[in-house]
């Protein structure tokens, strides 16, 4: 029987309204109104110029300084011919320079292209070529990698910067050893911060279009190489507005500690967009470190943090945790990857800090990640005890429905199918991939490929990923991407990649490889070494060499038969 969609949503929204937690706003919260993300920095710099926007191991960057530095970079880029729509790659880990580059790019109406600093040569070259980036901002220690691929790309200008230039003489928290390396001279690049100090022209005054392309956030796919999700400043603003209303609740009084990589979209949200739109302060860590995190919380009396459950467990079990005062934490949001949030972890965390621990959200790169919320659903651990995996209610303005995977027909409440989502922050398509875009977005809804159910009270439950995506220590790994990379090896005739469960890493990619006839002497160790040279470490698969791959009549690998070989 065909279900009437209008009646379906009338009923579903009534159920969700009845289930809506008391005190949670039903509309997005825009502290400064619906203005450009880049204009938020300008306005907060006017209202609170001396307030720290970012603190990096004790180096305070005020709102006024961040606004000034990003203005200078926008002026410098404009002087070098960059205009609206030009793509600019940012090849940096967490550091203040990432933030100033982000805002400069948005102020100029250009397109922000965050590039994973864990990439190897092939991955870097692919993303630079796919975006056609003309300019890249690169960490000094990553320059050797960039040099290997630069001639293969359209990059015209390289700006280089270092951790050393932003670290204080007297840090307020432990600094990872890798950050303490001296600045590396790079004669083939423009030194970013010295160049900004020389800028005398004002930033161009550009009326930023909220609906223009503002960022290309790359996600993997089940076919071929990663795809760039086209996002706008309106997408960013909506995500910030709904999250500040329904889950993250930040204000200028908050101090956020963030170690999540801001080159990933979840980290961009929690460590950059949300605090900057709210006018808060972010204590930015370059990487996770339990003692560093606890030191930052105590020293800066941090009120908010977003962590993986694995991080919270490490703190709970750390021998020094009782010696730190973590009671300033009032809001802690977590994501379950390898370790899952459970009542015991929540109770122990509350005993240590006095704060609750709440699962953050369900989301995807295509939607800017924050599509549901669970705040207000923790009474008697309702959220944790509601099975299967409970991801809560949609944020204001977002709709979910469950459809049959094959026919696309709308499924009744309580029945499983494909999670489909419609949201104002939905990406505008995949960069250079019109056919993939048409396949993914149908009738205004993103067909996620994930399995879910909406229960009779209107709550969404996530049942698993129909796509082949793996989670390795919380990081997304896509078998098709690994297979595409392996396909570049002349000694490999074919491959099939699946996941193996692992107690420490969550999942591990396993590549079953059939060798070419002339691949004499090629072994698993040699292939693993080849992979390590070309892939981020977390993507490198275990290698299993097989005589032949089980194939379907249409030439596809029978992955269910590979699983029997694990």
From TrEMBL:
Listed Gene3D superfamilies: 3.30.300.30, N-terminal domain of ligase-like
PROSITE patterns named among the record's database cross-references: AMP_BINDING
Domain AMP-binding enzyme C-terminal: 481-556
Any one GO MF annotation of this record: acid-thiol ligase activity
Ranges for domain AMP-dependent synthetase/ligase: 41-431
PANTHER family (alphabetical): LONG-CHAIN-FATTY-ACID--COA LIGASE (PTHR43767), NONRIBOSOMAL PEPTIDE SYNTHASE PES1 (EUROFUNG)-RELATED (PTHR43767:SF1)
Protein name: Acyl-CoA synthetase
Organism per entry: Bosea vaviloviae
């Amino acid at each position: 029987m065909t279900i009437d969609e209008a009646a379906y949503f009338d009923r579903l929204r009534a159920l969700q309204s009845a289930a809506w937690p008391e005190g949670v706003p039903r509309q997005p919260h825009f502290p400064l109104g619906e203005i450009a993300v880049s204009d938020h920095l300008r306005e907060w710099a006017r209202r609170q110029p001396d307030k720290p926007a970012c603190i990096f191991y004790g180096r305070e960057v005020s709102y006024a300084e961040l606004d000034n530095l990003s203005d200078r970079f926008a002026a410098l880029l404009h002087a070098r011919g960059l205009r609206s729509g030009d793509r600019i790659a940012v090849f940096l880990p967490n550091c203040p320079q990432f933030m100033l580059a982000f805002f400069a790019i948005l102020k100029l109406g250009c397109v922000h292209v965050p590039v994973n600093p864990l990439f190897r040569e092939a991955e870097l070259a692919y993303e630079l070529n796919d975006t056609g980036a003309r300019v890249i901002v690169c960490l000094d220690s990553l320059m050797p990698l960039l040099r290997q691929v630069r001639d293969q790309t359209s990059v015209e200008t390289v700006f280089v910067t270092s951790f050393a230039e932003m670290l204080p003489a007297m840090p307020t928290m432990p600094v990872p050893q890798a950050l303490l390396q001296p600045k590396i001279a790079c004669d083939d690049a423009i030194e970013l911060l010295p160049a900004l100090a020389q800028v005398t022209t004002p930033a161009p005054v550009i009326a930023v279009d909220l609906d223009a392309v503002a960022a290309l956030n790359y996600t993997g796919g089940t076919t071929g190489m990663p795809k760039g999700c086209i996002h706008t400043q309106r997408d960013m603003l909506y995500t910030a507005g709904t999250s500040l209303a329904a889950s993250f609740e930040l204000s200028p009084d908050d101090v956020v500690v963030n170690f999540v990589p801001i080159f990933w979209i979840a980290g961009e949200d929690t460590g950059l967009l949300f605090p900057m739109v709210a006018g808060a302060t972010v204590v930015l860590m370059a990487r996770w470190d339990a003692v560093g995190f606890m030191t930052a919380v105590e020293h800066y009396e941090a009120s908010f943090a977003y962590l993986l459950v694995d991080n919270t467990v490490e703190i709970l079990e750390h021998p020094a945790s009782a010696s730190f005062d973590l009671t300033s934490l009032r809001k802690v949001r977590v994501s379950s990857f390898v370790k899952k949030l459970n009542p015991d972890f929540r109770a122990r965390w509350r005993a240590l800090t006095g704060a609750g621990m709440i699962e953050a959200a369900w989301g995807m790169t295509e939607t800017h990640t924050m599509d549901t919320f669970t705040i207000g659903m923790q009474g008697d651990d309702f959220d944790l005890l509601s099975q299967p995996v409970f991801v809560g209610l949609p944020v204001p303005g977002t709709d979910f429905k469950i459809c049959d995977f094959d026919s696309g027909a709308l499924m009744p409440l309580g029945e499983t199918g494909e999670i489909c989502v419609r949201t104002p922050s939905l990406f505008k398509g995949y960069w250079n991939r019109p056919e993939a875009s048409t396949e993914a977005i149908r009738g205004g809804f993103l067909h996620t490929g994930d399995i879910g159910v909406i229960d009779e009270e209107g709550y969404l439950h996530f049942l698993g990923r129909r796509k082949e995506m793996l989670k390795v220590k919380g990081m997304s790994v896509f078998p098709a991407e690994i297979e595409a990379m392996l396909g570049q090896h002349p000694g490999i005739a074919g491959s099939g990649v699946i996941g193996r469960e692992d107690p420490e890493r969550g999942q591990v990619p396993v590549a079953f490889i059939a060798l070419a006839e002339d691949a004499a002497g090629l072994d698993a160790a040699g292939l693993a070494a080849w992979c390590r040279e070309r892939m981020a470490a977390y993507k490198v698969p275990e290698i299993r060499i097989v005589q032949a791959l089980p194939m379907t009549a249409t030439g596809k690998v029978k992955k269910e038969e590979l699983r029997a070989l694990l």
